[in-house]
Amino acid sequence: MNEKELLASISELFEQQNERIDKKFDKIDRRFEQIDQKVEQMNTSLAKLQINQEGIIMPRLDLLFEGHTSILEKMQHDTRLQLIQDRVDTLESAVKYLSTELKHLKKAE
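-> structure tokens emitted (109 positions)
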């Protein structure tokens, strides 16, 4: 092999190597494009989720919280009513006892 043939052979090997490298880079580029598409889809889904959260979920949570607050207020009101009822029952018992004692004292006079 003379020098020209050797250089031509080396040049052909470099060309083949470059073609293989180019093919690998093309595959890598396609993968990056797929990844970019998936990231875009995820960003779109995330934006929809945020809109859903802000527009639907948060107002419903607020309503739920308001309902629980209302229930708690009623329960506290019911507790106060129960305390008042207990005091009234105690006073009624005391009045009955004192009335009975007063009748006994009047009879004893």
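The first helix runs from residue 3 to 108.
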